[in-house]
Design goal:
Blueprint lengths: L1 H28 L7 E13 L2 E2 L5 E4 L2 E11 L3 E17 L4 E18 L6 E14 L7 E15 L4 E12 L3 E4 L2 E4 L2 E13 L29
Antiparallel strand pairs: 1-4, 1-12, 2-3, 3-5, 4-5, 5-6, 6-7, 7-8, 8-9, 9-12, 10-11
């Protein structure tokens, strides 16, 4: 029994040492070769309008809505830039001195974004970003109320390989105050939103390098034929 008791701790120690030796190799197996280049992506998720008040009093509240979008970008391996078009709708309930109503509010936005990956060569990389552009919020006009739109981004990317990435991110999306006509009165309100988006991105492989030019054929040394007189 005493020998068996000594063998067990020895086996545990060997297992711990083996695990410590294998950990670096496991980490290296998760490394990828990040490539600069253009990429495209798409995603969707849930959206919420943050409760707010209006210029005539009362309040606007919301329940869970949805959002979708597509993008094109360029990865510098670390820094990235993107152009994104996104659309979302959220159910709202408005209670104001002018009228009370329930419905849905939609917002289309076109934004340029700047992002930064902290560990672009790792399987998992956290990233941050910010964007700015134009938004079109549901209103009484054809395109809606045109506003300046901006957002802040915090995300985590899973680099499946050097070309495919799955990304989960949280976004704060705000705009300048849109306006809508209620009972003939122009009413403005604060427009602040939060969204969680799950998306996929595909990076195009860089063009293959041109093959080197063929090496020149070796030049044969000159040869001569010399004739001598007989028996000379």
């Amino acid at each position: 029994d005493s020998d068996a008791g000594g063998v067990r701790p020895m086996k545990k120690a060997v297992s711990v040492i083996a695990a410590a030796i294998l950990l670096p190799s496991v980490g290296q197996a998760q490394e990828i070769n990040p490539l600069p280049g253009f990429y495209i992506g798409a995603g969707g998720g849930l959206a919420w309008f943050l409760n707010t008040s209006t210029s005539v009093g009362g309040s606007i509240t919301s329940s869970t809505g949805w959002g979708v979008g597509g993008l094109i970008g360029y990865d510098f391996v670390g820094p990235r830039i993107e152009l994104e078009v996104a659309y979302g709708r959220v159910p709202i309930t408005a209670s104001t001195p002018l009228a009370n109503f329930t419905g849905t509010a939609g917002q289309l936005q076109i934004m340029g974004k700047v992002l930064y990956d902290f560990f672009p060569a790792s399987a998992f990389t956290p990233y941050v970003g910010a964007g700015a552009g134009v938004g079109f919020v549901d209103s009484n006009t054809a395109l809606g109320s045109t506003v300046f739109a901006y957002q802040g981004i915090l995300g985590l990317g899973w680099n499946v390989d050097s070309q495919w990435r799955i990304a989960l991110e949280g976004r704060y999306i705000g705009t300048t105050n849109p306006s809508v006509s209620i009972g003939g009165t122009n009413v403005t309100y604060s427009n602040n939103n939060f969204a969680t988006i799950l998306g996929a991105q595909y990076k195009f492989a860089p063009p293959a390098a041109a093959p080197p030019p063929p090496s020149a054929a070796p030049v044969a040394p000159p040869s001569f034929m010399v004739f001598f007189d007989w028996d000379s």
